[in-house]
């Protein structure tokens, strides 16, 4: 936003009209964020998202791995015990969540490193490529 300042000391009269010089001043004192600050902010968000993902995947694996539910199957009189090893899909779910949780715990070190060294580009590329390949 620009403001107009009137300088009355330099005023003059021209053809019977008061003429004032106009001086424009920029009153915005916005601090532009540097790329280093932006990289540190992204690294903090990355760390928080990794922690949330660890809690979610580990919680899902533990909940599925320790469940022992008895469900009525076809009729109320035939009980069916459901566990993670009854169907290959459930076994894959537990194994995949365990692998992803382990990967996220190991990748926390790189995420913390990026918070400390915001100019590290090679490790960011490695982390992004591993994030893409992880199940």
TrEMBL record:
The keyword Transmembrane helix applies. GO terms for cellular component: plasma membrane. Its main location: membrane. Keywords: Cell membrane, Membrane, Transmembrane, Transmembrane helix. Residues 40-134 form the Casparian strip membrane protein domain. It is a multi-pass membrane protein. Coiled coil: none annotated. It is found in: Cell membrane. It comes from the Eukaryota. The chain crosses the membrane at residues 47-70, 90-116. InterPro entries: CASP/CASPL (IPR006459), CASP_dom (IPR006702), CASPL (IPR044173). Homodimer and heterodimers. Belongs to the Casparian strip membrane proteins (CASP) family. This is CASP-like protein. It comes from Ilex paraguariensis.
């Amino acid at each position: 936003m620009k403001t107009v300042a009137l300088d009355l000391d330099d005023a003059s009269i021209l053809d019977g009209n008061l003429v004032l010089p106009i001086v424009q001043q920029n009153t915005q004192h916005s601090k532009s964020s540097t790329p280093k600050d932006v990289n540190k902010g992204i690294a903090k968000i990355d760390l928080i998202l990794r922690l949330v993902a660890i809690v979610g995947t580990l919680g899902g694996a533990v909940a599925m791995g320790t469940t022992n539910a008895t469900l009525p199957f076809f009729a109320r009189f035939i009980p069916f015990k459901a566990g993670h090893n009854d169907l290959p899909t459930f076994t894959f779910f537990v194994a995949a969540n365990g692998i992803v949780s382990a990967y996220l715990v190991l990748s926390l070190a790189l995420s913390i490193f990026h918070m400390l060294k915001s100019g590290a580009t090679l490790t960011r590329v490695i982390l992004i490529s591993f994030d893409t390949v992880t199940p």
